Structures are given as C-alpha cells and as structure tokens.
Amino acid sequence: MSDFRYLLPEVILSVVASLIMLLSPLLDRKDSNTPGILSGLGLLLATAATLLTWRQRALGFSGMVLIDGFSQLSRLLLYGILFCVAIAAIDFLKREQINFGEFYALLLFATTGASLMVVSADLILTFLGIEILSIGTYVLAGFKREDPRCTEASLKYFLLGGFSTAFFLYGVALLYGKTTSTRYQALATSLQTVPDILTFTGLTLILVGFGFKVAMAPFHVWTPDVYEGAPTPITTFMSTGSKIAAVLAFVRVFYMALEGLNKEWGDILWVAAVLTMFLGNIAALSQSNIKRLLAYSSIAHAGYLLIGFVSRSRFGVEAILFYTLSYALMNLGAFTVVQLISRQGDNRVLLHDYVGLGTRHRWLAVSLSLFLFSLAGIPATAGFMGKLFLFSAAAQSGLYWLVVLAVINSAIAVYYYIRIIVLMFMREPEAKEETIRIPLGALAVITVAALGTLVLGIFPTIFMQAAEAATVAGIG
Amino acid sequence: MDFFMRNILNIVTYFPLVGVLLIILWPKGKEHEDGIRWIANLVGFIGFVISLPLMLSFDNPKYIGADGMRFGLDHEWITAIGARYHLGIDGISLLLTLLTTLLGSIAILSSWSAIQERVREYYCYLLLLQTGMIGVFVALDFFLFYVFWEVMLVPMYFLIGIWGSERRLYSAIKFFLYTLFGSVVMLLGILALYFFQHSQTGVWSFDILRYQRLSIPAELQWWVFLAFFLGFAIKVPMFPFHTWLPDAHTDAPTAASVILAGVLLKMGTYGFVRISLPVLPQATLHFLPWMMTLCVIGIIYGALVAMMQKDWKRLVAYSSVSHLGFCMLGVFAATPVALQGGILQMINHGISTGALFLIVGIVYERRHTRLIAEYSGLSHVMPLYATVFLIMTMSSIGLPALNGFIGEFMILQGVFGDNNLRFWAILGASGIVLGAAYMLWLYQRTMFGKVDKPENQKLQDLNLRELATFVPLIILAFWIGLYPKTFLQYLDRPVIQIVQRVRPGILQGQEIKTTAVVMKSGQSTTER
Amino acid sequence: MIPVQHYLVLAAGLFSIGAIGVLVKRNVLTMFMCIELMLNAVNLTFVAFSRHLGRIDGQIFVFFVMTVAAAEAAVGLAIIVALYRNRETLNVDEASSMKW
C-alpha cells in the first residue's frame, strides 16, 4: 500500500479528472470556469506530490515504477506544460462554444498516461501509459465533433496510433519471450551480447512504435494532417506534452533497458535522424498553413532530438532534456499565438492571415518572432542553446557527419521561419481586420514562454544543472 | 569611478539597452515621437562619451590584465560546455569599439527626419544593433563572440526589411540567409576547435586567447580555416561572396547603410585578424596566395562594377567591395606594416564610406531617387554639401593629408616589401587608380555642370543637424591623415603579436617600430 | 505437443496480415479490425511465450492488452460514427481533405 505514494501524482490527476467528469453535467456549459480551475488545482497538487518524493530514489510496485531524479524532473516538465495548455485553453473553449468539462478531464487523463510513461520501469506499464495518453488525445483531437477536419484528424490519429502501438506491443512480446521479463533492469542485464534475430526484431518493432509517437521519419506521415485538423490547443498539447512524454520514455527505455544494444539502435537512429530532419525541413518550405508548417517543423525538431540519442552519451541525454524544455517553451508560445490569431472558428491559420500582424498586434507579432527565431536556432534563445548542446554531444561522440548534416538543416529551416516574420512585419495589412482580444490565460502563457525562451537562451546553466543531476540519477 | 572603470566594457556594451527600455516605456502617440528621437540621440551620444575612457585609460596599469587585455571581465557562464563571459580589449578592438559608438550615434542623429513611420521600433532596433556590434568587438570568449555575431543579424534584418526602399524584402532575406549560412558553417569550425582544444588540454573552453596558443595540426587548420573563411568572408564581403552587399546597402535606410558599411563589414575583417590569423597561422600561410588573389579580384572587380553603376548608392556599395579588398590584402599579407595598414584602413573605410552613405542619404531624403542621372550641378545649389562630399571623395580615393592615403599607403608598402607578394601589390595599386576614376567621375556628374532639373533648383543645403553628423567624421579624416600615430600606437603591440604567430621569420633580427617605417618612407616619397 | 515456434509463426503471420491490411484497405472499419487482429497476434505471442517459459505474467499481460483494446474500440467506433455523420462515407481516401 505504501507504494502508492510513488504514484500519488498520477492518482491525484485521475481522481481530479473523474471528479470533473462527474461535475460537468451539473455545470453551466457556456461559461463555467470550474473545470478549468479544478484541473489547474489538480496539476498543482500533482506537482506538490511530486516534490514530496523529490530527491528520492525508489523502485515501487515490485519494480514496475522507478522514482528517481529523471522521472521527477520529467513529471514536473509535463505538469508544467499541461498547466500552460489548460489555462490557454479556457478562453478557447468558450470562444468555440465547446466549453465542456470533459475537455479538461481528458486532458488530465492524458497527463496521467504521460506521467506513467516517464515513471515506468516496465515495458507493460510504458505501454499502458502510452495508451492512456493516446486514447485521451484521440478524443481531444476530435473534440469539435461538428467540424469535419477535426473528426478527420481524430480518425487519422486513432488509426495510426493504434497501428503503432501494435508494433510496440509486438516488440515487447518478442523481448519478453527472449528475456522472460519486461522490467527495464532485467532486460538490461539479459541484453548485453550481440542480438539474435528475435531480439533485433523486437528492438526494431519497439523503435517503430516510438518512432510513430515522436514523429520520426518515415513514420511521421500522420503528423501534419493531425496537427492541422485538431483544435489548436490540442495541437499545442500534442506537439509539446505527448511528444515530450514519448521522447522521455524513449530515453528511459533505450538508455536503461536496451543500453546493451546501443550499437544497433544507434545506427538505425543515425539514418532516421537525418531522414527526419531533411523530410521535415524540406516539406516545411512549401507550406501555406501555419499549423501544418509548425507540424513539419516539429518533425524536423524530432530529428534534432534523435541526434541526442545517436550520441549515446550522458551529455547526449542532458542535451535531450534541455532541448525538450526549450522545445516545449517555444512551441507552447508559438501555438498559443496561433490559437489567438485563428479567431472564432479556429480557421484563420493560413500564412496569409499573418500579413501585417506587426502593425496591428505588435506584441503578439514580436513574441511570435521570438519563438520562431528560437525554433530557427538564432543565438540568445533557448532553441540555439538546445541545438548547440545536442550538436556538441554528437560531435563529442565523433559523429561529425551527423553534425554537418544537422547544421545544414538548421540553415535550411531558417528560411521558412523567417518567411513568417517577413509577412508579419514587412508587408502592409490588406484589409481592416477586427482586433484580437488577448485573454489573460493566453497572455500569461505567452509571457512565460517568451521569458523562458530568453532566460534559457542566455543563462542555460540554470536548467542544465538540473538536467545533469537528473541524468546522473536516471541513467547513471 | 573605479567601479565604472572596472565594468566599463559591460557598461559600454549594454548602455544602448537602457535606451531601448526607455523608448519602450515612453508614452504612445504621434506627438511623443520627438521624445523618442531625443532619447535615442542622447543615449547614442552618451554611449560614445562613456566609451572614450577606454582610450584615455588604455595604458593605465590598473586595468591591464595578465594576458595583456585591457579592462578584462571574466565570469562563469555556461558551465556545461565551459563557455565563459569573458570580455576584454586590445588596441584593435579599442579602435573598432570607438568607431562603433561614434558611427552609431551619427547614424541615430542622421535618421531624425528620414524615419517617420514606426519610429519607436526603428530606434529600438538601432540601439539593439549597437549592443550586438560592440559585443562582438569586446568578446574574448568564442562562444560569446558567436552569440553577439548572430544576435546583431536580427535587428539589421528588420531595419532593412521594414524601412528599406523598393526591393527591401528580397534584400533583407538575402542578407539574412547569406550571413546566417556563413556563420552556421563558422560554428562548425568553432566546434572543431573546441573539441581539439579539449583533446589537447583536457579543459573545455571557448577562450580565444587560449585558442591562440594552441598548435593545431595542419590538416585540421585547413578545414577550420575554410569554415571560418566562409563565415568571415561573407561578412566582409570578399569576392565571390559579395553579392548580398549591393542589394542590402541599396535598399537599407541611410542609417542602416552607414552602420552596415562602417561597422558590420568590419566584423568580418576583425574576425580574420582576431581569430583566423593567430589561431590558424599555418593555414593562413597555406591559403595566402588564394586569399591575395580573391582580394585583388575584389579590388578590381568592385571598382569596375562601381564605375558602371547608374545608382549612386549602389556605386558606393561596390566601392566598399573594392576597399574591403584592400583591407584584406593588408591583413593577409601579415607583414607588420601591411597588417597595421589593413586595420587602420578598416577604420578609414568606416569613416569615409559611412560619410558617403550619409551624403547619398541626404539627397535621397530630398528627392527620393538615387539615380546619378537625376542630379547635376548640385554644387551651385548646395555649396556646403558639395564641400563635404569633396572632402569625403578625397578621403575615399586616398589623397595625401587625408586618412585613406595613410591606410592604402601602408598596405601597399607592406605588401610590396615582401618579395613574394610584390606582384599583388602592383595589381592592387591599379585599384587606387580605378577608385579615383569612379569617385571623381561621380563627383563630376553630380556636382558640376548645369542644374538641368527644375526639382534640383531649390534643394536645401545641409542643415545644422546634418552638418553635425559630418563634423566628427571630417575631423577624424584629417586627424588620421595628418597624425596617424594617435591611432597607430594602439596597434603596434597586437600587430606584432599576430605577425609573430603567422610569420615569425619576418620579425627575426629586426625589431621594427612599424609606425617609424611609415613615417620615414612617407617622407622619402614626398621628397622625391 | 506443438512446439512454441508454430505459435510464433502463426502469430507473426496474423500480425503481418493485420499490418498489410491497415496499409492496403481503405474502409475505416476494416482497417480498425486489422489493428485488432495485430493486437490479437501479440496476445497469442504473449500466451505462447508464457506457456513456453512456464511463467504466468505473459498471460496477465494479455488481460491488459484486451482491456486496452476494448477501450480503444469504444473510442475508435465513436470517432468513426462522428466521421460518418460529417462525411457520410467510411472510405479514408474520400474522407481525407487535408493533403499537402
């Protein structure tokens, strides 16, 4: 029973989520803030519960759950992201007249899943975490039931998500057959030698499963459609929350359980990283829809993150942790601005809608530019530092060609980010547009993200130390 | 006072940001715009004044660090990769920093009436740019250098893209992508050095001074040299990487052109002097013939193309390509005199070309055209303007008693003094002739003749504010032309250090006091 | 007694049929069934290994998988119904409006 304290945050989240479910029929659907406030409170409580076991290291539930610096930091990261997504969504839901409590309940359930993924020390629990996260997100992606694009996004996400988990699970089954266990530790001790066909297939299948979740090429095809069709706050969530949960679980599985096979997965990921970067960046060049463009950009960023994996070193993991935070900040910021500009109906998402934004909404435009510069990797922003850490980790491991290719990619990417900035500042708006109201929640998220992007860009040491501690605790 | 002097580099670098903050907080509305202009001008001017103690206390032993750098500041910054917040200046960076603060304040003053739209943002970008540029010149940590180097791209990009003329979007993006591509490749070179440095000493560091002491295997030097070359040569710009420059210059607003020509291009040459030469001496020698060839092509090509231009501003832009070729010729020759001349010529180019852009800007503001054919006989309607233009033309073509002469002379003398390089000196000298040709022809076409356009009849001569932008530049042009020692004395020591790294043979047995050589040979030419 | 390899080969065959089905079929319901087929192939693998290794946990995993599959089915069918209401078709190509 005492093991429950290790999963206290997850318990809190699911209890609050259920509470919101129960309450929501009683509430005024039009402008009740209660579910939003409740979910915010739930996340705060979960954060407090995480801090309760801060700096502890423990295996719970007979080895299925591992609490250590890595999982704790990952949890805090996820709760922080979710908090931002939730408060930015409050006004969106009212604007789109879909202010249902279920939205927050599902968001919290999804967070529970994400949270389980990062504390798990057993492939079956990881699988359950992925599924809890995904099922919540399938529904959220289609939350605007009447909108055909929304249901289409939901369906595509559902089909490909289910497809990919099947792969993941099959890989788990094969490794189970090989090693008689699904615990990370047991796997790590059994999988030391050159793998036979069974292990290799299992490894590859698990890789495919994660590949879908983090949008690694060639398993990225769902991303643009789903990001484009889903309601913007959910796109924000998918591009930050679920992706980061997947990346962190990916680190956990590959650095803890499959460490012995790192030669094999390192080689595969080298190719995948290059492919992902190029496909993402080149496809992004020709996009005219900003959500789609950012989707391709997030594919490219998945490619950069994979570089951290390929470097197979502690510094690589630190760099991945740093990058996930900076990536989360800039995407939270960028998508929240997109959400405001999309206006009633959530459909003003073409690049065309950004023409002249700099004169009409100077601060929105300035902050979006900051996020875009950060995504492009211009110094003094978090994105630059993140890339720098990733690339130096790779160079430290002797992967010079990978670094060269990655640098070329960053140079290509600048073009499409800059294009948006050009539209915002250097073109005159064509017609008079109604002004955009900036709600408090979104304003707070944008401010926090902007400040975070700058602070991490100038004083990266602040977070890098935490990342270092977490890495030492997590993978030794 | 002591606190001020100890942190002077921080203060000089970040002072413009105070202006940015004030301008952001300043009340909105058309009627308050003059207030913004006042703030920006005051901040620019004070920024220049507080940078003067750098020169006055330069040799005060209290502020000389163990490494010979002045006013050094060294703090921990990014421990994970060993990057430090390390600032400090030597004679080279001193002159360039002062040039930056001076040209920055002049650029701000020159935009008073030219900029009428989005005034607030304009001055913010201009001041941000100022901080970025000073940062590049004072940073001694390579990583910090790179951060400043890249950061200042952003405000420049906005300055060209928002307040530029017809093809501003194209020019802004071209400028941004070109320079960004170069600097990204430079980053690769930095990383290579960084890892090599670690493999040698076991310490993670980006310290430029530390890099200058490394002995790097020849093959690595080549690769790193090429990577840096791309980054710096695009910025300079050297032929064949110059194509962004005419576009960016032509479309930028006047103040941005002044800064672009006066300071931004110097960042490239400064990079060569500060990093490529002392860190990679063997590669520098290895690539020397290639570099000299590119410089000479740049000098002649730039001059020839300048001659063909119908657009006044574009002509000045191409003259930059030619002049910068000269600077680089001196730098790469790496003999003490040539190097010193090359560095002095950077300052000279900042002064004269900066002024020439101001000159174009003044008639552009009045007539909104830059076509040379649109103007003629301006000396009749704008006598004061014509005088200033004349002085700056002379400075640009290297007339004795003006600054351009000293720089060009030292470069040519230095290059010529080396038997192996004599050939390039002769080719380079032809650039001076061509330079005189296109500048004088430009002067003749615009200033002399009849005033044939009715619009030109009633053009206003320089007003007091415009004159004020030129006065310091004219004074400096004469000062350097008549008594260069004031400035050259700061260059002796750093130049000798660099030459020792690159071509130690040259210095052996002959401790040359470089300025003395110039003065002596200068006299002998006049006697003859 | 049938050796474990036979079960594994059967499971691999079922999994492949499922995977290919998802890729080639265009009817949403059929694709969904194919995914279920893949999950069941995994279940078969788990059970076979569990029996072969003489460990019980593999069979417990199957219950997890079945629960998850049930939850997925509930959500998935709801999404399909929503799609049919909007588009009146179950063909993914016809329902697909977003393309690059």
Give a verbal description of the structure:
The complex is a heterotrimer of chains A (476), B (528) and C (100). Chain A has 476 residues and is an all-alpha fold. Chain A has 19 helices and 2 strands. In chain A, strand 1 and strand 2 form a beta hairpin. Chain B is mostly helical. Chain B has 25 helices and 2 strands. Chain B has a two-stranded antiparallel sheet with strand order 1-2. Chain B is globular. Chain C has 100 residues and is mostly helical. Chain C has one domain: Helix Hairpins. Chain C has helices at 4-24, 28-53, 57-87, 92-95. The A-C interface holds A 124, 127-128, 131, 135, 138-139, 142, 145-149, 151-156, 158-159, 162-163, 166-167, 169-170, 172-174, 176-177, 180, 182, 224-225, 228-229, 283, 286-287, 292 and C 8, 15, 18-19, 22, 28, 31-32, 35, 38-39, 41-42, 45-46, 48-49, 52-53, 55, 57-58, 61, 64-65, 68, 71-72, 75-76, 78-80, 82-83, 85-87, 92, 95-98, 100.
Concise synopsis of the structure shown:
Chain A has 476 residues and is an all-alpha fold.
Report the biggest beta sheet of chain B as strand number plus sense, adding barrel if it closes. Answer: 2 strands, antiparallel
**Quick one: how many beta strands of chain B?**
2
Q: Which H/E pattern describes the elements of chain C?
A: HHHH
In percent, how helical is the residue content of chain B? over 70%
Low-confidence stretches of chain C: none
Main structural class of chain B = mainly alpha
Secondary-structure topology with pairs:
The complex is a heterotrimer of chains A (476), B (528) and C (100).
Chain A: H1 8-23, H2 34-52, E1 58-60, E2 65-67, H3 69-95, H4 101-119, H5 123-141, H6 148-179, H7 184-190, H8 197-214, H9 222-229, H10 232-257, H11 262-285, H12 290-310, H13 314-341, H14 357-360, H15 362-376, H16 382-396, H17 400-426, H18 440-458, H19 461-475
Antiparallel strand pairs in A: 1-2
Chain B: H1 2-6, H2 8-25, H3 33-56, E1 70-78, E2 83-89, H4 91-110, H5 119-138, H6 142-151, H7 153-163, H8 168-201, H9 208-213, H10 218-235, H11 244-251, H12 254-279, H13 281-308, H14 312-333, H15 336-367, H16 378-381, H17 383-397, H18 403-417, H19 422-447, H20 454-457, H21 464-482, H22 485-488, H23 492-502, H24 504-507, H25 514-527
Antiparallel strand pairs in B: 1-2
Chain C: H1 4-24, H2 28-53, H3 57-87, H4 92-95
